[in-house]
C-alpha cells in the first residue's frame, strides 16, 4: 500500500524559544523605552532613536510576529518625535 | 667675493649721497663766506644740517673708506644739482610732514576709541530664523531613515531573487525525486504547492516528501539579513555567507544506528559542543580525513571507525573533495535531537525525542556578495544529498559494530537515568501523595455516612496490602542475601 507523503511541520525553532533570534524583541523594548524617555524628558534625540529602533525591529521581525505590536511601537515612536517638536520647535543641537 | 663687493656697493650708494652732500657743505662753507647776503637763509639750515652730518661722516668714513673713495669722485659730479634740490625738499617737507601726520595720528586714535565700546549682537533664535539650514540634524535623521528604508527594499528583493534562482535551478531534480515538493502545512490535502515558503525576509523553507527511504526533507535557505542596514554594516567588519540547510528525516527501518559527521574543523568543534548526539556519542576530537584523501580543511567525527570506513566510499570522497569549499557540515545520526537544551537540572526528567536524521549545511559561494548565478553551483550538492539518502539506507553495521552501537546507547541512557534518578523519585513520590490526598478529599466530601465508612475501609485494605507486599519483598531480599 502506498504511504501518503508526510506533511510539513514547522521547524524546531518555533517550538523552542531559546533558539530564536532575540533581536526584534530587544529592539521593540528599546524602542518603547526610548520613546517614553523622549516624551517624558522632552529629549528630541531619544525620540529619533526610538523611531530607528522601531524600524530595525520591523526589519528583523519573524513571520510569527504580531503586526499589531509592530504598528503600536512605530506609532509610539512617531508620536514621541511629534510631541517633542510641538513642545519645543527649536532644531536639535548636535552633541559636539 | 665679487658679489660681496657689489652688495656692499649697493648698500653704500645712499651713504654716498649723504657723504657727497656733506662734503659739499664743507666746501660750501668756504664759498658762503663770500655770499653771505644771498645765502643767509640757508646758512642756519645748512649749519643745522652740518651739525648733524659730522656725526654721520665720522661714523661712515671710519667704517668703509675704500668704498666711499671709489664712488665719491663719480657721485660728486652728478649730484651737485640734485643735492640742492634734495636739500630744499628736505627743508620744505619738514613742516608739511608734521601737518600731514597730524591727521593720521588722530585717525588711528579715533578707530581705537571705537573698538573700546563693545557692540553686542543678539542671536536670533534658530526657529525664528526661517531657514531650513538650522534644521540640519533633523534632515540628517530623515535621510538616515530613508537610507534604511531603501536598503530594506533592496535587500529584501535581493534575497527574494536569490531564493527563486536557487529554486529554479533545483526544481527539476527535486521534482524527479520527490512526489510532494513544497508544502506549507495549511492545505487539508497533501498537494504540491511548487513554491518556496517564505518564513522571513531572509529565511525560505521548502518541504519535500514522498520518496522511498526518507520520511521527508526540509530545506531552509538561510540568507544573510540584507534587509537590515545594521546587519549590512556589521557584515562589512565580519564577512559571512548565506547558508542552505537540508534536514532529511529517515524512516526508522531505513537507517542503522550510528552517529557520524564530516565538515570543516571549526564547524565540527562547534557542533560537538552544541549538538546533543555528537557530544554524547562522539567523544574524540575531530580527526583529519587525509587518510581517505579528503582535503585538509575537512575533518571527521565518528562514533566508531567502522562507520567512517563504511561512509567514505569513492563517490562520497569525490563529492567531499570537489565541493569542500561549499560544505560546512554533514551529519548522519540516528540519535538526532537537535542542539542541547539548556534546562534547569530539576526539570529534565525524560530524554529528548530522537529522530533518524541526515543534516547537511552548505555555504553559498561568494561570502555575502552572491549573485543568482552562484545558486547553480549548489546543484551538485543536492545530488550528494540524494546519494547520501540511498547510501544511509544501504549501509548496515556488521555484528560487532551493532553490538558496540547498542552498548553505547545503553550507556548513554543509563547515565541519563542516574543523573535524573533523584528527580524521578521525587516526581513519583509527589504523584503518590497527590493520589492519597484526592482519595481523602473524596471520602470527606461524601455525604452519606455509610458510603464514607465503606470507602474508608477500602482505602485501609489497600494500604494493608501494600505493606504486606513490601514486607514480602524485604523477606525475599534477605533470603537472597543469605
Automatic annotation (TrEMBL), chain A:
GO terms for molecular function: protein folding chaperone. InterPro entries: ASTER. Signal peptide: none annotated. GO terms for biological process: protein insertion into ER membrane. One of its GO terms (cellular component) is endoplasmic reticulum membrane. It is found in: Membrane. Belongs to the Asterix family. PANTHER family: CGI-140, PAT COMPLEX SUBUNIT ASTERIX. This is PAT complex subunit Asterix.
TrEMBL record, chain B:
InterPro entries: CCDC47 (IPR012879). Pfam families: CCDC47 (PF07946). GO terms for cellular component: rough endoplasmic reticulum membrane. The keyword Lyase does not apply. GO terms for biological process: endoplasmic reticulum calcium ion homeostasis. Residues 60-103 have a biased composition (Acidic residues). It comes from the Eukaryota. It is a single-pass type I membrane protein. Residues 104-117, 429-471 have a biased composition (Basic and acidic residues). One of its GO terms (molecular function) is calcium ion binding. PANTHER family: ADIPOCYTE-SPECIFIC PROTEIN 4-RELATED, PAT COMPLEX SUBUNIT CCDC47. This is PAT complex subunit CCDC47. It comes from Pomatorhinus ruficollis. The gene is Ccdc47.
Amino acid at each position: 500500500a502506498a504511504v501518503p507523503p508526510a506533511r510539513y511541520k514547522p521547524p524546531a525553532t518555533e517550538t523552542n524559544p531559546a533558539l530564536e533570534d532575540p533581536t526584534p524583541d530587544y529592539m521593540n523594548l528599546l524602542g518603547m523605552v526610548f520613546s517614553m524617555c523622549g516624551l517624558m524628558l522632552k529629549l528630541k534625540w531619544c525620540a529619533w532613536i526610538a523611531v530607528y529602533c522601531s524600524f530595525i525591529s520591523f526589519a528583523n521581525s519573524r513571520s510569527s510576529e504580531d503586526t499589531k505590536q509592530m504598528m503600536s511601537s512605530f506609532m509610539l515612536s512617531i508620536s514621541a518625535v511629534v510631541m517633542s517638536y510641538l513642545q519645543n520647535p527649536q532644531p536639535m543641537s548636535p552633541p559636539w | 667675493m665679487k658679489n660681496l663687493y657689489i652688495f656692499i656697493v649697493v648698500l653704500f650708494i645712499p651713504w654716498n649721497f649723504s657723504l657727497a652732500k656733506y662734503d659739499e657743505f664743507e666746501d660750501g662753507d668756504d664759498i658762503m663766506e663770500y655770499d653771505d647776503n644771498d645765502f643767509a637763509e640757508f646758512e642756519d639750515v645748512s649749519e643745522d644740517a652740518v651739525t648733524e652730518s659730522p656725526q654721520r661722516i665720522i661714523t661712515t668714513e671710519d667704517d668703509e673708506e675704500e668704498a666711499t673713495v671709489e664712488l665719491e669722485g663719480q657721485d660728486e659730479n652728478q649730484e651737485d644739482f640734485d643735492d640742492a634740490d634734495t636739500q630744499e625738499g628736505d627743508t620744505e617737507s619738514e613742516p608739511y610732514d608734521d601737518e600731514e601726520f597730524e591727521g593720521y595720528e588722530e585717525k588711528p586714535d579715533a578707530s581705537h576709541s571705537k573698538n573700546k565700546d563693545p557692540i553686542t549682537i543678539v542671536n536670533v533664535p534658530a526657529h525664528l530664523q526661517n531657514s531650513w539650514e538650522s534644521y540640519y540634524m533633523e534632515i540628517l535623521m530623515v535621510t538616515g531613515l530613508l537610507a534604511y528604508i531603501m536598503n530594506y527594499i533592496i535587500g529584501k528583493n535581493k534575497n527574494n531573487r536569490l531564493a527563486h534562482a536557487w529554486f529554479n535551478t533545483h526544481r527539476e531534480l527535486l521534482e524527479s525525486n520527490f512526489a510532494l515538493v513544497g508544502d506549507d502545512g495549511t492545505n487539508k490535502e497533501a498537494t504540491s504547492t511548487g513554491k518556496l515558503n517564505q518564513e522571513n525576509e531572509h529565511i525560505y523553507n521548502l518541504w519535500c516528501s514522498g520518496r522511498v527511504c526518507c520520511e521527508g526533507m526540509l530545506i531552509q535557505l538561510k540568507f544573510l539579513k540584507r534587509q537590515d542596514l545594521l546587519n549590512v554594516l556589521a557584515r562589512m567588519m565580519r564577512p559571512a555567507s548565506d547558508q542552505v540547510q537540508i534536514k532529511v528525516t529517515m524512516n526508522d527501518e531505513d537507517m542503522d544506528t550510528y552517529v557520524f559527521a564530516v565538515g570543516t574543523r571549526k564547524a565540527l568543534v562547534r557542533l560537538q559542543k552544541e549538538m546533543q548526539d555528537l557530544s554524547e556519542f562522539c567523544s574524540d576530537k575531530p580527526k583529519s580525513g587525509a587518510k581517505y584523501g579528503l582535503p585538509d580543511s575537512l575533518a571527521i567525527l565518528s562514533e566508531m571507525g567502522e562507520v567512517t570506513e563504511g561512509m567514505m566510499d569513492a563517490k562520497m570522497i569525490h563529492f567531499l573533495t570537489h565541493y569542500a569549499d561549499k560544505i560546512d557540515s554533514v551529519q548522519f545520526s540516528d540519535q538526532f535531537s537537535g542542539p542541547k537544551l539548556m534546562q534547569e537540572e530539576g526539570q529534565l526528567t525524560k530524554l529528548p525525542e530522537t529522530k533518524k536524521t541526515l543534516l547537511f549545511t552548505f555555504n553559498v559561494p561568494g561570502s555575502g556578495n552572491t549573485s543568482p548565478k552562484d545558486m547553480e553551483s549548489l546543484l551538485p550538492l543536492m545530488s550528494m544529498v540524494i546519494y547520501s539518502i540511498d547510501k544511509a539506507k544501504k549501509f548496515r553495521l556488521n555484528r560487532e559494530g551493532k553490538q558496540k552501537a547498542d552498548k553505547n546507547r545503553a550507556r548513554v541512557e543509563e547515565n541519563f537515568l542516574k543523573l535524573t534518578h533523584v528527580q524521578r523519585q521525587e516526581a513519583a513520590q509527589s504523584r503518590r501523595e497527590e493520589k492519597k490526598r484526592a482519595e481523602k478529599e473524596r471520602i470527606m466530601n461524601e455525604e452519606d455516612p455509610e458510603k464514607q465508612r465503606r470507602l474508608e475501609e477500602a482505602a485501609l485494605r489497600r494500604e494493608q496490602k501494600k505493606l504486606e507486599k513490601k514486607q514480602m519483598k524485604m523477606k525475599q531480599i534477605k533470603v537472597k542475601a543469605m
